[in-house]
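TL;DR need C-alpha cells for one chain.
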Amino acid sequence: MSTTQPAAPSEQGPAAGTAEKKLRPGRTNATKQRLFEASMELIGERGAAGVTVDEIAAAAGVSKGTVYYNFGSKSDLIAQLLRHGVDIMLVRLQAIEGEASDPLESMKNMVGQAMEFMDEYPSFARLWVSENWRTPGEWSAVFAELRAELLAVIGSAVERVAAGYKVDESVVRGSLEAAIFGAIFVVGLDRQTYNPERTREQSVAAVMTIMHGYVIK
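>> reply
TL;DR here they are.
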C-alpha cells in the first residue's frame, strides 16, 4: 500500500456542543471522539497490539484513509488518542478546580471526577497502566508529557491544601502527587476488575486517606 495519502478535507470542525452531557476539549472534533471511543473499546478487548487500523476505522464509522490522513500510522493514532483522553480528563478536572471553598473538599471532588472518567473509559485506564511503565515503551515520550500535565493539576490542588492547612513538611511533594496519581488508577481499576460492588465514593475516600495523612490534625 502506498504511503502517500490522497488529500482530504480538513477535519477541524466546530467544538463539541455545550449541550453535551460531558465536558470535552474545545478543539476536539466528532471524528476524533468516535475514533477514541472505538479504539478504547477494541483495545479493552484485545490490547493495543491486537487491534488494527482497519478495525478501528470500521468501528468508528470512518475510512481507513481518513485515519492515515489524520494520524499517519497506528502508533501515531494511539499517541493522539492518549492525548485526547488526557485532554478530556484535564478539562473535567480544571472545570471543578477550586469550586469548593475547602481545599480538601476540592481535592476530593477532583479525585471523584477522575474516578468518573475511568468508569466511563475503563479501557483507557487499563491502557495507561499497562503501557505507562513499560521501559522502553513505544509511547514513553507521550506518557511522560501527559503524566507531567496531570501531575501539575494534582500539584496545584495539593498546593491549595498546603496553603489552607498545617501539613507534614517532611513529605516530599513530588512523591505525594505521584502517590495520589497512582492511587487513582490502581484503586479505580481494582474496583472495576475485582470489586464492582464498591461504590465510587468508597474508592474516593480510600484515595483521600493519602491527603488526610498529609494534613496535621
